[in-house]
Amino acid sequence: MKTTFRKSMIWLHTYCGVFVGWLLFAIFLTGTLSYYNEEITHWMTGKSLSTHSQEAMLANGLKTLESKVPNATSWQIQLPDDRGQQYRLSYRENGERGRIFIDSVQLQEREEFATEGGNFFRTFHYTLSLRQWGGRYLTGIAAMLMLVGVFTGIYTHRRFFKDFFTIRRGEPKKFVIDLHAIIGVITIPFCFVISFSALAIYINMYQPFTIAEYFESYRSLDREVSTRHAPIKALKIDAQHPILIEEVLTTVKQQWGDDVALSSLAITNPSDVNAQLTASKAKTDILSNKAQTLALTRNGELLSSIEPERTARMVRRVFYGLHEAHFATPMLRAAFFILGMSATILIATGMVIWVDKRINKQPKRIHRFVEKMNYGIFYGLTLAVALYFISSKLAVFNLNLVHHELTVFFSAWLASVVFVLVVNAERAKFGLLLLNTGVFGVLLLIEFIRLFEVVTMDSAQQFDVPNLTINCWLVLTVFYFSYSSKKLKKAKSESKDVKELVQC
Description:
3 domains; seven-stranded antiparallel β-sheet; 62% helix; globular
C-alpha cells in the first residue's frame, strides 16, 4: 500500500486502467456503435424505410404465415420501425423454429441479409466473439475494473471544477492529461451506469453459486421472479375464420391510444379457435427492457392482464433498458453516442498518459511495446471498423465481400498490430492515421455514389433518418482523422526543423 489513501487510490486507478485498457477500448467503441445497431444494418444493406401502415404489415404477415406454415404451433410478426429494424416472421412447427424475411417496401418475401450489420458490434462488445470461450466473463471482469476505475478516479481527480476549466493546449502531454480529466468529470455518471448495468444484465452468470443455493437452476429462478400472461388451453378445434386483425388493433388502440406503435405480435396455436395473441408495444417511452403487452383472443377480445414483476426484477430490467437506450429519441441517442465516444477517448488518453509518465520508469522494451500496442489497438480497431463497412458497400461496384466481412475485420485489426510492432512508433502512428483517413474517405465516396444512383433512379427518393445519421457521423470521422494526420505531420516537420537548427 502507498503512504496515503489518495496515493493508494491513484495507484489502483492507474493499474486497473492499464490492466484492461485495450480491452475496455474495444468494448466501449463497439458498444457505442451499438447505439446505432439498427441504423447501421439499414445503412449497410441500402434498403428503404417502409411507408406501409402497421395494420397492412400485420395483415400481410398473417397472410404469409397462413399460406406457408398453417399448422405451426406459434407465429410471431416482428414489425419494422423508423430506425430501420427488419420486417421478419418467425414460427415454430414440429419442434423446429423457422424465419421468413419480408421486404418492408414491396411486402414480398426476400432472402436473409448476408451481412451481420450493426448486430456484429452489439454482440462483439459483450462476447468479444468468444461466446463459447468465456467472452462474457472477460467483459464482466473489465466492467468490474471499470467501476473501480470510476470510483478511484474521483479521488485521483478530486478537484472537479479546477480540472474541468483547465486546458493547456500549448503542451501536448499536459493537454492529454487535462483532456482525460475533463472527459472523466463529464462521463462519470455514464461510465457508472454502463459498467454497473453490464454486471446486472449477466448477474446470473457472475453469481451462479447464489442461484444454486436457493434454486434448482436459473430457469426456475426466472419462473419465480418473472410474470407472463396466463396461457389459454387449445381446444384442438380448427377456427372457421382467420384472425380478425382489425378487431385486434381496435382493442389495442382502445387500451394504448390511436397513435400506438407495436413492435411485434405473437400468436399461440394460430389455427385453433382458442388462439392467444400477445401484442407488444414499442419500447420508446419506458426505461425497462420488457415491453408492455396485451393478451387477446383471435376475435380481438381482451384477456387478463399480466401481473407486475418483483421489484428486484424490475430494477434489473430498468438498468438493462438504460444500457440499451431503446427509449432514446434521435437527439438523445446522439447524446449517448457522444458520451460513449467520450468514454472511449477517456480510456485511450489514460493509456497514453501512462506511457508518457513511465518513459523513464519502465524498461525501454516494455515502454516501447505498450506505446506501439496503443497505436495498433486504437487506430487498428477503427481501421477494421471502416473496412468492415466497406466489405458490404463495395456491392455498389459489383465487388461483394459481404460474406468475408468478419475475416476482413479481424485481419485488418491483426495486421495493424503487426504493422506497429515492426515499424517505428511515430511512423506507425502516422501510417495508421493516413490509412484511416483514406479508408473512411473511400467509404464516404462510395456512399455518395450510391446515394447519387438512388436519387437518379428515383427522383422522389428521400434521405431517411438512419442513412442521414450514419453519413453525418461518417463525415465527422473523416474530418477527425484528416485533421489528426495533418497535425502529426506538422509536428514532425517542426521537430525536424528544431533538430536541424540545433545541429547548426
